[in-house]
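Request: Not sure, any thoughts?
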Amino acid sequence: MKRSQRCRARTGRDGPRLAALAALMTVWYPVSGYGESYFNPAFLSEDTASVADLTRFAKGHGQAPGVYRVDVWRNDEFIASRDIRFDEAPQVPGASTKSSGLTPCLDSDWLKRLGVNMRAFPTLEKYRKGECVALEQTIPGALADLDFAALRLNISLPQASLSNSARGYIPPEEWDEGISAALLNYSFTGNRGSGDDSYYLSLQSGLNYGPWRLRNNGSWSHASGSGGRGGNWRNIGTWVQRTVVALKSDLVMGDSNSGNEVYDSLGFRGVRLSSSDSMYPDSLQGYAPTVRGIARGNAKVVVRQNGYVIYQSYVSPGAFAISDLNPTSSSGDLEVTVEEKDGSRQQYTVPYSTVPMLQREGRLKYELVAGDFRSGSAQQSTPFFVQGTAIAGLPRGYTLYGGSQMASRYKAVTLGAGKNMGEWGAVSLDMTHANSELSDGSRHQGQSLRFLYAKSLSPYGTNFQLLGYRYSTRGFYTLDDVAWQSIEGYEYEMDTDGNGHRVPVARSYHNLRYSKKGRFQINLSQSLGGYGSLYVSGSQQTYWGTSESNTWYQLGYSGGWRGISYSLSWSWNKSMGLSDSDRIVALNLSVPLSTLTGRHYLRETALDRAYATFGASRNSDGNSSWQTGVGGTLLEGHNLNYSVNQGHSNTSGSSGSLNANWQGTYGTLGAGYNYDRNQHQYNWQLSGGAVAHANGITLGQPLGDTNVLIKAPGASGVRIENQTGVQTDWRGYAVVPYATVYRYNRIALDTNSMNNHTDIERNVSSVVPAQGALVRADFDARIGVRALIALNHNGRLVPFGATVREVHSGAVGMVGDEGQAWISGLPLKGQLLAQWGEGADMRCLARYALPPSVMNKPVAITAANCLPVSGMTQEGSQ
């Protein structure tokens, strides 16, 4: 073979590689002078007629102008995902060429969203609304570059050109109030055993319409045994709320709780208008207490607030921590009951006080409440009261705050101050003076002094999350004290004794003759580096006229080594007027089975994700127990948790348990079985959420206060990234719970979980939900066949680079080598419009029909004749 023939043969085989090399050479070595660069189609094929008109790629890097949905980033900070028009970038002699050859069309509204200080650039005033701003010419040092492959618009703005706004600020115009919808959240737990059966149902329902939210919380409980049966429904609260954007506040009307920063939180039925921290970029997002405790065996934990059961769950032996309390209940002291299987119980109170009162300089935080006092106790009255509080941030790290509570038999005034002391932490001090009239007609007045301190010693690994003390004189009472209809009394609830009989059990006790004296509260953690960490949590409330107190402390140590974790905990609690003190010490150990196989960092198999556990405990009555078991996760999405345990105690003999919890598309399901020598018990849990919206009803896992509805019609069974067990239903809808309000929430579909006939043009969406909203994230799913179709026109292949569009579905593709067009989302029958130039003779239309059997194949390969457009009917083409 001659050399010229070998060259031509190699050129035919290596055409695509030579084309890529030629394109790179035109970038690296541009033509000198002012003439336009020219791309010779002969680089792709010796037959230039077999190549489409590629002049649109000859300038810059050839991306076509148009509207693209891109992620907008400003100075490496994500701003939004929006549709933006891109125009061809002007070619300036001697200037560097943009990577995409496109420039964004950003008007003055967009510059405001980017945080540009409009007053600093008078030339911006000449641009009308909607008119594209020459960004790089108007703002010196500004750059806008489109990464077309990632569809990311990178905008660089000099810091001097930006307004003085906090990092992460999202303007209210971006906040999404969501769609109109009805919501239902449910949680059902049941227990069936040898002695008694019990059931608990919690329902949280609501309606969303524009910025308005209607909510209702209620619970139903039922118990039965040899001693009888009984059940009741309790309405915890009904309210309407909405945001007041102009005031950066929340308005609540109905049953709710007041704030707890200046005064203790109180339940009320009335109206509340208060500042919303979450609307501010860098403000605190609130504080919720962590309920800690130690269970000697498989136990039921019940958390009450203001007489209502707000949380109920089953825990395994050893130390436990509950940190996911419902945000609507995160105020006021929490009454915790740990019910063991042998009938014994622990009862203690977790006080809920806030961290020191500090506000940013220049910010005023307020709350106004008017309504009837409301609690879950039948022994308390419902006096009407008015409350107002204010917290103002002052210069030099100071904060001034105060407030007042007024009722017919109660008046209180508070004044306090806080200081950020830098390296010495933060501190606040306030005093409350109150005049009270109790239920027996006696009148009292007194003062209460509160001190709060918080400090993080990062270099030493020490964190005083909260250290506080409150001292009250003998005559000081709170509005909650005044609401009691008797000076002294117990709160009872019906329970089942060891013989299966329904008996009243004292749950709490109050005695106003013993007014509160001092309350100490601490939450301290200390890191020991590679040797683990220590923590101390607890509180003590003392009273005037008695040596009794409400006391709860827990001390713990935890650590880890090569994947092995261990902890040692000790707790002590004593409640005034109830049983004697209870002290418990517990040891827990967890060993991943992967450490035994040497696969420390792999989680590929069920064995790799399994672990062995050991736990032992002993209380002050001499009751001891130990338990060992195996647990882990199963299934591809790791959404099935299981545990199997076997143990022994000196009171109940041998015992064992089996538990499993599954997080699925339509909810969560849990089941368990445990036994000892005295009884056998089964427990189960079913929870989930339902959303009724304009496109139907969507079921999902338990809802949060704010949620995201995914709409991807036809894309069934697609998983959602970073959401265990959440995937689209058979219609292509799903609910992502617990969205972050007034912040960008990234919602992404897992493309690896899509079937062969589903394509998503863009699998990522960003939403900014308002408080309580159900926002919708729309995804454009193309459902159909993925195909390689060879198109023949006038006895020749359709030219390389021609664009192809299915006229009905809109699916698009481009012709590659050998005249084959790759198109996804095709219907089984349709018409393909191919175009490779501007003239009428540079387009054609091809009918095709694929057999249903191709739905079982990853890719369909076929051929079709492409006829001149004038020679056949062009149904639906444009």
Observations:
- The chain is about 5% helix and 50% strand.
